[in-house]
Amino acid sequence: PLVTSEKIMLRAQKEGYAVGAFNVENMEMVQAVIEAAEEMRAPVLLQTTPSTVRYAGLEVYYASIAALAKKATVPIAVHLDHGESFDLVVRAIRAGYTSVMIDGSHGSFEENIELTKRVVAVAAPNEIPVEAELGKIGGKEDDLDGGDGGGYTDPEKAKEFAERTGISSLAVAIGTAHGIYSGIPKLDVERLKAIRKIVEIPLVLHGASGLLDKDVVECISEGICKVNFATELRIAFSDGVKSVLSEKPDTFDPKAYGKAGRERVKELVKNRMTVCGCTGKY
Ligand code: 13P
Ligand code: ZN
Ligand code: NA
Fold it and tell me: Record-annotated residues binding dihydroxyacetone phosphate (predicted)?
């Protein structure tokens, strides 16, 4: 069924695993993620960024995810990823999204708190959990450039931020970046532990494409309850499409290459769910 993200994340936190959160762009990716979740008996979040929302609209993503989620037997949440404004968050909630992120990490600490508080004030009465971000996650997410990834999350500030805003989960900056890494990133696990020690709400890891499985597993054992995967899914889908079009360049049925893209995404998602430890839970 379609659920909010809070219960599945709190259960993951209690039981020491992470829920996979997968960015989707089209119907085939929605199908792939939900089929993977059903087969793996895993809870899952499907999420869209502002640029994806601009591509097809909140209503289309919500409707396609909800249609499949309602028939599914595992819990599925529809999440707005990196919500860039109060207005977009409100529109997502109105469209039926069951979870939202407000990304105020590009403003000052106080600006981030103010924006996040305003979002929590509209989301809470609708029982929609809010994820926020403190610190700067590197790389380019959408149109927002996080730069070189400087500005890791300060544990004391994270505690203050969580308490003052009333958010349900917090995205932390500990050395990950959006997109594919040029080298192997060194994650600041000590910082994650320090945050975990004083921040009680579920913590979120962004930028998981390109991380070593063992690093993801270590972060989960130190308190991460949601792991975001985006770029890898885009690559998998495109690789599937390209494989068909390069082998048979005169293909004109979108179903033929759409199916190939969908299969690649599904395999990838099943693999990442296994890394997150969230399989066989429902
Ligand atoms: P990647 O593109 O590195 O997987 O990052 C995903 C993410 O953090 C989406 O919010
Ligand atoms: Zn992100
Ligand atoms: Na990444």
Answer: 179, 207-209, 228-231
Burial track 66-90 (b if 16+ CB lie within 10 A, e otherwise): bebbeebebbbbbbbbbbbebebbb
Q: Say how far apart CA 222 and CA 148 lie, in whole Å.
A: 24
Write out the residues surrounding ion ligand 3, Cβ under 5 A: 207, 209-210
Cα 36 from chain centroid (whole Å): 16
With respect to CATH, is domain 5-276 assigned 3.40.50.360?
A: no
Kindly tell me the sign of the dihedral angle through the C-alpha atoms of 158, 83, 230, 178: negative
- Say if residues 273 and 41 touch (Cβ distance below 8 Å): no
- Cβ proximity of 231 and 255 under 8 Å: no
Q: What Rg do the C-alpha atoms of the chain give, in angstroms?
A: 18
Residues of the chain with pLDDT under 70: 140-150
Q: Please tell me the distance between residue 141's alpha carbon and the centre of ligand 1 in angstroms.
A: 7
Catalytic residue among 81, 148, 250, 253: 81
User: Tens of pLDDT along 31-55?
Assistant: 999 999 999 999 999 999 999 999 9
Q: Where are the domains of the chain?
A: 5-276
246 is in an annotated binding site: no
- CA angle at residue 233 from 181 to 203, to 5 degrees? 70
Residues in Cβ contact with 46 at an 8 Å cutoff, skipping those fewer than 6 apart:
21, 22, 24, 30, 33, 34, 61, 65, 76, 77, 78, 79
Q: What is the pLDDT of residue 148?
A: 45
What span, in angstroms and rounded, lies between the C-alpha atoms of 123 and 156?
Answer: 25
pLDDT of residue 139: 77
- Best CA proximity match to 177, nearest among 129, 122, 140: 140
